[in-house]
From TrEMBL:
The keyword DNA-binding applies. Keywords: DNA recombination, DNA-binding, Transposable element, Transposition. Required for the transposition of the insertion element. Pfam families: Transposase_mut. This is Mutator family transposase. Belongs to the transposase mutator family.
Length: 379
């Protein structure tokens, strides 16, 4: 029902924007001097579309001269319109593209400013989503980042800013995006504010936090959640290692790295790392030291049962989420503001969560969590 409500709000926002353009002043402001026409409340209108019958609120003016373009007087059907408004924006189309599409398909001539006002309604949904209450305990939370080009409000220069996403797995094995944050730099102060935000929204414990070398993160999460185990993302560590390899050696290096993270114990993994360094140090001297630098965040991995290891290692969920986000933003060279980027990424997250959200084979992992973490897991 959330998407249907969002479509209704978008249509109502668009009708309100049309009335603003018709009257020449924003809602809540005074009318221009000498103008007698004013806003005159709203009326209810029932429309039939792909989601069935929908009731929307249509704004009115005093003298009845307002003729909306989106839903004309007497119109009772909006076939496809409710899906198109939000669908085009969520697919990554620019305001200019959406304007051209509405005119070509529906014969609606709307200004870019009008479409921008309509899509701004998404920000209300984002604020509500970003402040919603969360579960008390999350067995696993994966923190990841991707880079987005955003025009800086002060310098007006386009900068690469990081979009951080937290993907949690609940005690019932349901994946849930806990929030998204945009920042120019990684630092402990930023991460501490993120951790405190999660606490303020109800999170009291995170059993395992999976990260990819985010600067300042370990100190921040230890300050907010002292008992949390910080685990480096094995997939990202392997990919980082393979970046130093010639193409012809990648398969063999990957196979030897697999012997490290597939080891039964931390001691066995350390022995495999020594063997790897002895074999490849002459050709790729930087790989083994990279693993040793991250070793304190690698070794917690070996204390877990294979059922838990599989969820931590594969990180398929966060990879799938990143693919959905990148697909939405790839058509944009850059975003004019952080709000514009937030709107589109939020819609991409909603599309991601419409798919399957349950973690596969969670039952075995749940039993292991209940044994390993006992009171914390069942709190």
């Amino acid at each position: 029902g959330l998407m249907k409500e969002l479509k209704i709000k978008l249509m109502e926002r668009m009708l309100g924007a049309e009335l603003t353009a018709h009257l020449g002043y924003e809602e809540g402001n005074d009318a221009p001097p000498g103008q007698s026409n004013r806003r005159n409340g709203s009326g209810s209108k029932r429309l039939k579309g792909q989601d069935g019958e929908t009731s929307i609120s249509v704004p009115r003016d005093r003298d009845g001269s307002f003729e909306p373009e989106l839903i004309k007087k007497g119109q009772t059907r909006i076939d496809g319109m409710d899906d198109k408004i939000i669908g085009l924006y969520a697919a990554g189309l620019t305001v200019r593209d959406i304007r051209a599409h509405l005119e070509d398909v529906y014969g609606l001539k709307v200004s870019p400013d009008l479409i921008s006002r309509v899509t701004d309604a998404v920000l209300d949904e984002v604020r509500e989503w970003q402040s919603r209450a969360l579960d008390r305990t999350y067995p696993i939370v994966i923190f990841d980042a991707l880079r987005v080009k955003i025009r800086d409000a002060d310098s007006r220069m386009v900068k690469n800013k990081a979009v951080y996403v937290a993907l949690g797995v609940s005690r019932d094995g349901v994946r849930e995006v806990l929030g998204l944050w945009i920042a120019e730099n990684e630092e402990a102060k930023f991460w501490l504010s993120v951790m405190n935000e999660l606490k303020n929204r109800g999170v009291q414990d995170i059993l395992i936090a999976v990260v990819d070398g985010l600067k300042g993160f370990p100190d921040a999460i230890t300050a907010a959640f002292p008992e949390t185990t910080v685990q480096t993302c094995i997939v990202h560590l392997v990919r980082h290692s393979l970046n130093f390899c010639a193409w012809k050696d990648r398969k063999y290096v990957a196979a030897d790295l697999r012997r490290i993270y597939k080891a039964a114990t931390a001691d066995q993994a350390a022995a495999e790392l020594d063997a790897f360094e002895e074999k490849w140090a002459g050709k790729y001297a930087s790989i083994a030291p990279a693993w040793r630098r991250a070793w304190q965040e690698v070794i917690p991995f070996f204390a877990f049962d294979p059922a838990i290891r599989k969820i931590i290692y594969t990180t398929n969920a966060i990879e799938s989420l990143n693919r959905v986000i990148r697909k939405s933003i790839k058509t944009r060279g850059s975003f004019p503001t952080e709000e514009a980027a937030t709107k589109l990424i939020y819609l991409a997250i909603r599309n991601f969560e419409k798919g399957g959200r349950n973690v596969r084979q969670w039952f075995a992992a749940r039993n292991q969590f209940a044994i390993m973490f006992e009171e914390r897991f069942n709190a």
